[in-house]
Structure formats: structure tokens, C-alpha cells
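Q: What changes when 1-deoxynojirimycin is included in the input?
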Amino acid sequence: MPADPWWKRTIIYQVYPRSFQDSNGDGVGDLAGIRQRLDYLTWLGVGAIWISPIFPSPMADFGYDISDYCAIDPVFGSLAEFELLLRDAHARGLKVILDYVPNHTSDRHPWFVESRASRDSAKRDWYIWRDGKPDGAPPNNWISQFGGPAWTFDEQTAQYYLHSFLPQQPDLNWRNDAVRAAMFGVLRFWLDRGVDGFRVDVLWLLIKDAALRDNPPNPAYLPTQAAINRTLSLHNADQPDIHALVAQMRAVLDGYGERLLIGEIYLPFERLATYYGEGLRGVHLPFNFALINARWDAATIGTLIREYEASLPAGGWPNWVLGNHDQPRIAARVGAAQARVAAMLLLTLRGTPTMYYGDEIGMPRVDVPPEFAQDPWERREPGLGLGRDPSRTPMQWDETPNAGFTRGGPWLPLEQEFKARNVADQTADAASMLALNRALIALRNGQEALSVGDQRIVDVRDNVLLFERSHDDETFLVALNFGQASQPLPALAEHDIVLSTRMDDDTARSGALRADEGLILKRR
Ligand code: NOJ
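A: The predicted holo structure follows.
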């Protein structure tokens, strides 16, 4: 039997580079800062870091608007600095995953500058240009993810260009082979330098309906929702031709041995599963975001685990995510006590877990006053609570000014709460959220049953979820109490307690699963 690929056993940790560690006092995190914190990451026990975009960018969408795919933005460092980071990460056994943003470039990317220069430009067809309707209206009714039409009129050539996100993020035309060749060259550029994989931004949006048909209205739309929900994304997303393209991308990686391809895909399970591709020649891990929006109770989570597992193609490896730079912080969503249960869930489920920086210390939603708002979505659709700044605030390292993140003025504000919640304090506290996460990670790293083992849901009742992980003759039982009432736990009779989310050993004394408690038990 060939050994499992590394990414089945690893734990991925997402670094939002602007907010992780600043090394030069400009208030924005950078690569040298990440490098300074590699020992923390190996101490924590994660096996791979995914770094959100670090490439030259006007920062209209904080790096998701790229003007050069094969360089490093000076705010983050240089190519030489990146190579040092990669070297030091690899020396510690840490894999490095980059963010690949293929759906759109920045409007300042030389390709777009050339494309927009004239209708006969050699790169005109690298983007999606169309005439307006006879009355001058945009070519169709598609809406930008960040509000407003997905089309902007370009005066100079009197046509509209498509942008699924900001007007500063024109969509590439992936039906053009020259675009494919150039963008696969980008993958090779980084693979040649030794990166271990990519997280592909909005993978399910890359190919659009060839006829650019109107999307149908969404009958369930409420005005309190983001504008993007006004229509159903029938023709601008998840098109059948996407899979051949994903297979091509994957083939580029396969030329380099064991590299990892992750897809950012927000779709229901049965559609998500198709991104593993025919013969598993698609992405290795189509991100599973189901926990992010799920109602937080045992019955809902139990059903979701069953449905997700049932949707996987034969041999398709699962994965789980609790948060990222676009989503509310898990601790804010479920509360501090349940955030511990959530951590135990994430780190014991079958499938590669992806952790979001700061969640290991239970970072909350940090309120960002409107005058400090940075996120373009918040600025374009204010007041709806869509802004992502509260999940992107600086990492809380210690209780010194600016939480040890920067000696300058941080690009997003911190709340004073960092004085009570930071890595330094939690490192010294054997019962902290950080100590719990580190213990969970150590356990998962040390026990095949918990990483690559089989999984079986044993019971879901009284807001308690019980599932087993087993490998060879070892079986672990995970018991998670999503509720605030203590519940009997008969399994205590034939199991030993390995770890409680409460980080104490009172469970044995109480003989029950306490309120908000998660337990890992080992069968005798
Ligand atoms: C998804 C990214 O995660 C998000 O942060 C970004 O705004 C959009 N894609 C556009 O690239």
C-alpha cells in the first residue's frame, strides 16, 4: 500500500498575512513577521500554513486584486524574503500553501491595462468584454459579490467588462487558451520554487455561461441581505465546463509530485463533491464550509456529518473548516464555551482540518468603528453586518501595546480585550483555549485513529453527539455536549478519559458529560 499523502494527516493553519505579525513597524503584517513566528506554529503542532495573497496588489480587496502573480508585494517583503520563509518552514517540517487567485486580476495588472487599451488589443479576449444593451444597460443582470452590477462601462472603448467582485477586479476569460497557459505558468513559477500547494480562490466561479444569460430572481431574497442574493447564481457559477479546467490545473501540480490543490467552493454537498473530479483528478480538497453556517446543536451537526460523508466519492478525502478571513469568528458565533467544543470537533473529525489564525486562543469578533472600516464590502454595503474586518484584526500575541503585533499603528484596530486574551498568557495557563488546541493537535498528530482512522456516528441525543474514530485495534470515542445541561455518559464504564475541553479531570468524579463539555475517550 502506498503511504497516505501528507495532506491527509496534516492540520492546515490559515495565516492572514496583514494581521499575523508585523516586523518593520508599518502596521501591516509581513513575511519576515511570519518567519519570526514559525516556532510558535511548530510548537502548536500544525503541519501546513496557507498564506492569503502576498503578491503585488493595489489592495482594493487586500491582496485578492493582484497586479503581478509572480512577485511579492513590498508591504509583505520580497521574493528573497519569501524564499527564506519557505526554507525555514520546510526546515521545521511545515508545508507552505499559497493563495491562487485565478478568477480575476487587478485592473492595474498589465494584462488588463493592455486589454482595455483598444478593442483590437491582443489581450482583449483575456477578459470578458461585451456591448451594453441597446438602451445602454449592462449586458446582463449579474450582480457583483460586493454589491452593484457585475459590469463596468469603459468609456475609452465603449464596452462593458465583467467583474464578479469589485470593478478593480476584472474577471479573466478562462475560455481563452492563452489565459489558461499564462495562469498555469503562474502555478509552475511557485511550484518550481518549492511551494507545497495552493488554495484556489472562488474556484466554482471561474467559468461562466458561454451565452452570459441572465440569472433568475431569487424569490427568497430579503432586503436585509447582501445585494448578491437578489438573484440565483445559475449562470455565473458552477458551470459544467469547470471540471475539465480543474483537471488541467491538477495535472500541472501532478507534474511536481505530492502537491496539494484546495478549492474555495461554496456549494451544497452534492455539488461540492463533483469538484473531486472524475477519477479523483480534480482538487484534493474542495473546502467544506458546512460548519460555518450550521445551527450549533448536536442534531444539526450530526446530520451534516452524515450527509457530507455520504456525498463523498469513493476515495475522496474529507475536510472541515470552522472559519476564515471572510466569515464571522467561531468564538463570536457560538460563544467561548462552545468554541472549545467546536475545536474538539474540528480536530477529531475524519478529514483534514483547516484552522484560522487566532481561533486557537478564542479570538472574538473585534468591533471596528465605521471610521476605521477597511473592507470594501463593508464600505459598499454599509450597515448590513457584511464587513469582514472584525475577523481580520491583528493576532493577539501578548499584553504589550498593540498586542505584540506591531510597534507602529495597526492597520485594523485592536480592542483592549487582548490584554486578557493573548498567546503569552494562554501559553502559561494549562487550562487555556490555546492549551486545549495544542493538546488536541498533539493527540491527532500522535494517533492514526484520529487522523486517518474510520469514523462512525454512535448516537445523537439530548444535544450530545457521540462518534468513534478507529484504526487497527484502537478506538476513540468523542462525546460533545452542545448544550448547557449535564448529561449522563454510560460509556465512561468501558473507556478511559483522554482529554476534556475543560482541561481538568473532574469528569470522572462527576460521572457525566458536563455542560458545554467535549471529551475524548479511549476504549479499553
Ligand atoms: C474569496 C476570498 O476569500 C475573499 O476574501 C475575496 O474578497 C474574494 N474571493 C475575491 O477574491
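Observations recorded in class: Residues 6-104+176-440 form a domain with the TIM Barrel fold (CATH 3.20.20.80).
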